[in-house]
């Protein structure tokens, strides 16, 4: 068995392991894996009790990675996230005590309950893959994926995420309620409250890091690259949009498309990869005119309209 075949098999085992624990959410699991393999971060917006925490814990156990959870509230300080340097009188030196952000998978629960100053402490980690404490820089582990959650129906005591923060999330997802059959299967299970605890690792963090490197080498044809740019520019030129997708959004969409191609056991990106992921990657980065919102237009509508109107390349070089 060659290396690529073994890695394809491993990625499929990761996916099956998650699906055995998180029932009825194949599409959402797929997108979370795409973000992980593309080196991106995820914002999950959903009501309580839909399995957000279990999904992240299950992924961490599946890849044998270190998991940390940060419960946000207005009293949370930046140092509670990054860590602090503590003075030891006996040694007359400062020693760094790492915070919970120093993990492979970090769940930032109810991120919009943290103050804007604390939210901004996450920006360096998300973009630069390191943190700075008292002038010293500390690298984050590989892989490093931050998954934040927020409740879409509670606004008391919350702080809206700024555009700069939203733009650093590769995807925004929603798990939603399960269908009736899946929900019945969940409640009759003796392990319904903590299914992730039963999972055994099927991979290691170092194996996932190697797959991430292979994902970067998935071929992107010039015609497909032009297709991505036309979609990105289309969001900026839409009449209902005040602020369209950024260049970072184009990079995120490309990386996600490469990861999706890899999970489909292809070494090249096709337009269908872009179509599949465009809404998840772009919608949360777009700001509509007030009049457009009042008329019922959504950012998802804009992305779907732009993708539908953008001509698809019919010839690609391999």
Automatic annotation (TrEMBL):
Highest taxon of source: Bacteria
InterPro entries: ATPase_AAA-3, CbbQ/NirQ/NorQ/GpvN, ChlI/MoxR_AAA_lid, P-loop_NTPase
Sequence ranges assigned to domain ATPase AAA-3 in this UniProt record: 41-171
Domain ChlI/MoxR AAA lid: 234-305
UniProt-listed Gene3D superfamilies: Magnesium chelatase subunit I, C-Terminal domain (1.10.8.80), P-loop containing nucleotide triphosphate hydrolases (3.40.50.300)
Name under which the protein is recorded: AAA domain-containing protein
Organism of origin: Paenibacillus glycinis
Highest classification ranks of the organism: Bacteria, Bacillati, Bacillota, Bacilli, Bacillales
């Amino acid at each position: 068995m060659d290396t690529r075949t073994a890695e394809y098999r491993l990625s499929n085992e990761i996916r099956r392991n998650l699906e055995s624990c998180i029932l009825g959410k194949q599409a959402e699991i797929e997108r979370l894996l795409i973000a992980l393999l593309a080196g991106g971060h995820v914002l999950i917006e959903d009501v309580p009790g839909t399995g957000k925490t279990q999904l992240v814990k299950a992924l961490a156990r599946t890849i044998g990675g270190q998991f940390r959870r940060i419960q946000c509230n207005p009293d949370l300080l930046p140092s509670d996230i990054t860590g602090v340097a503590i003075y030891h009188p006996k040694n007359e030196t400062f020693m760094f005590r790492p915070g919970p952000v120093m993990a492979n998978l970090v769940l930032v629960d109810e991120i919009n309950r943290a103050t804007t100053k604390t939210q901004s402490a996450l920006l360096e980690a998300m973009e630069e893959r390191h943190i700075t404490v008292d002038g010293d820089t500390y690298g984050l582990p590989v892989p490093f994926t931050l998954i934040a959650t927020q409740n879409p129906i509670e606004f008391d005591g919350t702080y809206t995420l700024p555009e700069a923060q939203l733009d650093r999330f590769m995807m925004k997802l929603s798990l939603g309620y399960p269908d009736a059959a899946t929900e019945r299967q969940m409640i009759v299970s003796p392990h319904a409250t903590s299914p992730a605890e039963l999972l055994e690792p099927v991979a290691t963090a170092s194996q996932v890091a190697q797959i991430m490197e292979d994902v970067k080498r998935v071929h992107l044809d010039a015609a497909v690259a032009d297709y991505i740019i036309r979609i990105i520019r289309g969001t900026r030129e839409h009449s209902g949009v005040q602020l369209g997708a950024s260049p970072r959004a184009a990079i995120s969409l490309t990386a996600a498309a490469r990861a999706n191609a890899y999970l489909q056991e292809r070494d090249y990106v096709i337009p269908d990869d872009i179509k599949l992921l465009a809404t998840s990657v772009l919608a949360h980065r777009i700001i509509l005119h007030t009049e457009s919102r009042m008329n019922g237009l959504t950012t998802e509508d804009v992305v779907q309209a732009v993708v539908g109107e953008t001509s698809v390349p019919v010839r690609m070089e391999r």
